[in-house]
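Entry type: protein chain
Record version: 2
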Amino acid sequence: MDKPLQIACVADNSAIAQAAYKEIVERYNIVDVTKRRVSANKAADVIVVLGGDGFMLQTMHQYMARNIPFYGMNCGTVGFLMNSYSPNQLIERIEESRSHILHPLRMYARNIHGKDYELLAINEVSLFRQSRQAAKIRITIDHVVRIPEMVSDGILVATPAGSTAYNSSTGGPIIPLGSNIIALTPLSPFRPRHWKGALLHHNSCVTFEALDPIKRPVSAVADFTEVRDVVSVAVNEQQKTSIKLLFDPEHNLEERIIKEQFM
């Protein structure tokens, strides 16, 4: 006899998500994902996430090392990474869901004090000016300098899953999943004035150098973790890390990304 599906459940602090969490806990046997696994029978097979895209992003960062798939149900606003909420037939929905694998970006950053940081980003890595003055940034792709000096508010590198988020709102392209492409999108560029960004192979290594980090300080952000006063930032795909998202067959992520391009 197959072991029954063991589900963990986490929810954000909103009233809607907390009410949904209470309903799920009352109807299903829930494993506590915050505790150490003490036996195979206590191990969670999937994490049900109740909230919006932001909370899903936080949850994936928190638990990605456990190699457990995530099944989100929308209790937020957009819910791009979420399924619709319903407490009914949850086990059956999870068992019939389709999976999609995400590979995050890896950011190596060094600040003006020589301290190094390594962070992962599921959506995007962004560079921002920290002061009233525009940033001056050199852009190198795979050891080839492509823009010797960009003057702008900043720049970002987005994954396909993250291309519909901040990248899209700044005028960047929406990228289909499975295209093996990442987006390089400038933020309010002054020079080159008409540069709209670039599409790069997902194996590309993108390096940014802050050309005047004292007078024109720059911060780097991997999803929601910020490193201030950077002098250099290198970004590439972390292919060794895989994050599995589960979607109902009628609401798969590939279809959502296609729909976004025609809204």
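Comment: The mean pLDDT is 92.
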